[in-house]
Write a structure and sequence with these properties.
The protein has about 200 residues and is α+β, with helices and mostly antiparallel strands. Helix content is about 25%, strand content about 40%. A hairpin with a 5-residue loop joins β8 (about 155-165) and β9 (about 170-180).
Length: about 200
């Protein structure tokens, strides 16, 4: 066997989200009532409940349009009484081609620096690598300006973090998108703290 040959796949994995993260229900059979059910379970009433129901419904529809079978999603609601969602997480497995790995992933993340397209400008990109229990984490912080025509400019904070288990043909990708610039005290530290909880079960490919 060649040294470093990838001969493992991820049979199962888990991320240790705190109790104020809630999975987004995208199942067509049950998802219709999810925003109102969750808001009620959080003890909300009146305006704050209706505000959160509206936010969850919008997020749910956006995730439904974007979702793939491999993608799991969750929302962070640390202060339910505000009626606001602080952050959205999308995470799932990504199959790696033979020429893909931590180095090429890092290069692709760094390439976003200064990128501009219609209505979007990457104003700041920071990248890093760090060992975690499940493997090597490769991440990027993005500060993105959205200048959609006819709307007030807004700034979005995001981290994109890939975890590469040793000798695996797959990686786990996590994308944390803050819903306001003040949602996190330190988005890099806090989201890396969650990524560090990832546990993987590997099996031979």
């Amino acid at each position: 066997m060649l040294r470093g040959k990838r001969n493992r796949i991820i049979a199962d994995y888990d991320i240790g989200l705190t109790e104020d993260w809630y999975p987004i229900d995208l199942d067509p059979a049950t998802s219709t009532g999810w925003p109102r059910t969750l808001s009620g379970e959080l003890g909300l009433t009146g305006d704050s409940k209706e505000r959160l129901v509206g936010r969850l419904s919008t997020i749910q529809e956006t995730m439904r349009r974007m979702s793939t079978p491999q993608l799991a999603t969750a929302v962070w609601i640390p202060e339910p009484q505000s009626g606001e969602v602080a952050s959205i997480l999308g995470f799932g497995l990504v199959q790696l081609a033979d020429d893909q790995g931590p180095e090429t992933y890092l290069e692709s993340l760094a390439a976003d620096e200064g990128r501009r397209e219609l209505g979007v400008e990457f104003q700041n990109v920071q990248t890093w690598t760090a060992p975690v229990e499940a493997g090597l984490a490769v991440g990027a912080y993005n500060l993105i300006a959205h200048t959609d025509l006819g709307e007030e400019p807004r700034v979005e904070e995001r981290t994109v973090i890939g975890v590469f288990p040793p000798r695996s043909k797959e990686m786990i990708e996590c994308i944390f998108t803050a819903q306001s610039i003040t949602a996190y005290d330190d988005i890099i530290q806090q989201t890396m703290g969650l990524v560090a909880t990832i546990e993987v079960q590997l099996e031979r490919a």
